[in-house]
Amino acid sequence: MSEPARHYPPQESGSRTSPGPLRDWLAAMKAHAPVAPDAKAPRADAPRAADPGQAWAPRVVQAAEAAVAGAEAEDVSELMAENLMLKAKLRQETDRYAELQAILAQEIRDLRKHVQDEMSDLQAIREERDLWQARCEALAQPLFQKR
């Protein structure tokens, strides 16, 4: 628990004593909870203290609701901050992914152009081969003709 809760002496009266952690928790709530002006007036649904001169009074339900709402608001703000961080990371990863896709697309275009150049070179070599084959056949034809 918090440090101030450990230094408060027990203030309960009567034969029933609270366990240590509960006493610490109640003391901490009293130390940290703001006292509303209407909290001093006894409420009908609030338990009454055995000793009317006792300084401690139970917390008002609205203050508990406000504390819970404050804790929920804090939780919500933490979730919103985490959500914003995750969105920023997602945006960054999306940008990186788009850059990688652009680089890969350019590499694929370059590779296709290279392959087309090689194929056109092979086509030129085939045409040249066919031309030389035709020349050889033309030159060799007289050798195989009957005289």
What keyword list fits this structure?
147 residues; mainly alpha; single chain; 67% helix; coiled coil
Write the layout of secondary structure elements.
Elements (H helix, E strand, L loop, with lengths): L2 H5 L12 H13 L28 H80 L7
Describe the structure.
By secondary structure, the protein is an all-alpha fold. It contains three helices and no strands. The protein has a domain at 1-56. The radius of gyration is 45 Å and the shape is rod-shaped. The protein starts with a helix and ends in a 7-residue tail after the last helix.
**Rg calculated over all Cα atoms:** 45 Å
Q: Could you list the spans in which at least 5 consecutive residues all have pLDDT below 50? A: none
Mean pLDDT: 77
Strand content: under 5%
Task: Give a quick rundown of the structure.
This protein is an all-alpha fold and 147 residues long. The protein has 3 helices and no strands.
